[in-house]
Specification:
It contains six helices and 14 strands. The strands form six sheets. Strands 10-9-11-12 form a four-stranded antiparallel sheet, covered by helices on one side. Strands 1-2 form a two-stranded antiparallel ribbon. Strands 3-4 form a two-stranded antiparallel ribbon. Helix 3 packs across helix 4 and helix 3 packs parallel to helix 5.
Length: 261
């Protein structure tokens, strides 16, 4: 069933019932519109009496539903099914630097559709673990499954790496200092095969969200530490990844700007 609020009342319609409305989703970075007779696996979200409510349809998709509320476009992510597989699983992961053990038999599950924080003092292996999950560091012992496959397998890694974004620790580590703010983001957009118009739209949205629009022509090497972090985040988000890994993303960012992360 598809649920709607009509005249202030919640109504449910089977998907075969024809209505003069469309449901909009972003699929593979493209905005798509489907009539209500189309069978979809999603939750539909509504604000009812000032409270966000979620109603499930017949199945689940990792999408967003868009509404105009009080004249403003709002996007709400769908709710993830509790039975959904974790986005990453670590089993018996061990890594050593010479005689120093950075990770010792780590078992961990990272749920899909969630924001997960990895907290600990300096030097306990947080960055090492994140780099292993992202596939940029070779696994020594154990197994890491990411997005449904073994990340140590070269074929699976090549297949899923375009769906992963990794922003490493350090100011501007994923940036090119001799390129401008715009050129850095545009470069990453080109790497992931976005067409010109799609890149322009995404870049404009990201720059506006991070308040970097005024600095689009400034060289990355001339940015402050906090602005470099914002730009690094833009470059990580340009291809709408399924898995976003941020290693200390707010380092060098002022407290007020941290809210934007």
């Amino acid at each position: 069933h598809i649920h709607f609020i009509l005249d202030g009342k919640l109504e449910a319609y089977p998907t075969s019932f024809q209505l003069a409305v469309h449901i909009h989703f972003i699929l593979d970075g493209k905005l798509e519109a489907y009539p209500t007779s189309f069978q979809l696996a999603v939750h539909i979200h509504f604000v009812l009496d000032g409270k966000l409510e979620a109603y499930s349809t017949s199945f689940q998709l990792a999408v967003h539903t868009y509404f105009v509320l009080d004249g403003k476009l709002e996007a709400y992510p769908t709710l993830m099914n509790s039975s959904e597989k974790p986005v990453a699983e670590l089993s018996g992961v061990t890594l050593r630097y010479g005689k120093t053990t950075a990770l010792d038999s780590v078992d961990l599950e990272l749920p899909a559709g969630k924001m997960v924080g990895l907290i600990g003092p300096d030097g306990v292996g947080k960055s090492t673990l994140l780099s292993l999950v992202s596939g940029v560091r070779k696994l020594q012992r154990g197994k890491i499954t990411v997005l449904g496959g073994d990340i140590s397998d070269a074929r699976h890694r090549d297949r899923v790496c375009p769906q992963i974004a990794y922003m490493p620790q350090g100011l501007g580590k994923n940036l090119y200092p001799t390129l401008s703010v715009f050129e850095n983001i545009d470069f990453f957009g080109r790497l992931f095969g976005h067409a010109h118009d799609e890149r322009q739209r995404r870049i404009d949205d990201l720059l506006a969200a991070t308040e970097l629009s005024r600095f689009r022509d400034r060289l990355a090497g001339k940015l402050s530490g906090g602005m470099k972090q914002k730009l690094g985040l833009c470059c990580a988000l340009i291809h709408d990844p399924k898995l976003l890994i941020l290693d200390e993303p707010t380092t060098g960012v002022d407290p007020l700007a941290r809210r934007q992360f």
